[in-house]
Write a structure and sequence with these properties.
Length: 136
């Protein structure tokens, strides 16, 4: 494993016969852990590519670093948006509640209609929860 002086024979991952078995550094990211466990399951499946993978990885451009001010700026933007929403919401919520009361008070409905609406809302909520929590 390593780079030779003439850069003609670069090997990206060690062959299955190499003695280096240091575990990779796994961050707390669930995807990294999943990939590392999958790699551990298939660690013996070495494919010799004569340095092709290493040459491709070296030819890729370096990853751009995000500026340090980006996260605080995004947090500040979301805080401003939340403050604007909070200041405009009380009047809007009052108007929506008043119109909903006028709509329901103007049209009489029976207990069976109310039960049907509640059942439909419950079915919709449980369907949404089932779709959101499924494991495909």
């Amino acid at each position: 494993m390593g780079v030779l002086a003439n850069d003609a024979h670069i090997i990206m991952n060690p062959s299955p016969t190499s003695s280096s078995s240091a575990p990779p550094d796994i961050s707390a990211d669930w995807l990294d852990q999943l990939l590392a466990s999958d790699a551990a399951d298939h660690g013996g499946d070495y494919i010799a590519d004569n340095g092709f993978t290493a040459r491709i990885m070296q030819a890729l451009p370096s990853r751009d670093a995000l500026p340090a001010w980006r996260k605080p700026a995004i947090a500040a933007i979301w805080l401003v948006a939340a403050a604007l929403l909070a200041t405009s919401l009380p009047g809007t919520a009052h108007e929506v509640a008043r119109e909903a009361f006028r709509l329901f008070a103007a049209k009489p409905f029976s207990l069976s209609t109310l039960a049907f609406v509640l059942a439909a809302l419950g079915i919709a909520a449980w369907t949404g929860a089932a779709l959101a929590l499924r494991r495909d």
